[in-house]
């Protein structure tokens, strides 16, 4: 069953903090919970409406965003990790977010792990 995507008014507005690690960061990036590369696939078009695919986003700092894409493939993101809670349930992502949360706002770690599917 697909996750619910009822966004409160103003959810698309850029927050002041990363929505994963909760650090205050000036430059946040938009992470599509259902990657745009899979929007055209039949499986995803049946599962989610176009509005859900386009509006399901998180505002993330660059280190969190980069780490998500290093650890998980686009397919895995769309099928199993299409919500904030699902992302945080992944052990590698949870460990990284917990580690990063104490770092200063300008901290840029290097992540060079192979992707897991």
Question: How would you characterize this protein structure?
Answer:
This is HNH endonuclease. This protein is mostly helical. The chain has a domain of 73 residues. Helix content is 38%, strand content 9%. It is built from 6 helices and 2 strands, in the order E-H-H-E-H-H-H-H. It has a two-stranded antiparallel ribbon with strand order 1-2. Helix 3 runs antiparallel to helix 6. The longest helix is centred in the middle third of the chain and has 10 residues. The chain is globular, with a radius of gyration of 14 Å.
Question: Concise description?
Answer:
With 117 residues, the chain is mostly helical. The chain has helices spanning 42-47, 50-55, 62-71, 74-80, 84-89, 91-100, and strands spanning 28-32, 57-61.
């Amino acid at each position: 069953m697909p996750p619910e995507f009822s966004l409160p008014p103003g959810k698309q507005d850029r927050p002041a903090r990363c929505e994963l690690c909760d650090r205050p960061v000036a430059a946040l990036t938009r992470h599509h919970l259902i990657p745009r590369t899979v929007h055209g696939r039949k499986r995803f078009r049946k599962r989610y409406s176009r509005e859900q695919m386009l509006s399901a986003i998180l505002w993330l700092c660059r280190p969190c965003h980069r780490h998500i894409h290093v650890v998980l493939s686009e397919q895995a993101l769309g099928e199993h990790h299409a919500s904030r809670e699902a992302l945080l349930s992944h052990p590698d992502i949870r460990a990284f977010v917990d580690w990063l949360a104490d770092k200063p706002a300008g901290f840029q770690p290097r992540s060079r792990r192979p992707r897991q599917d």
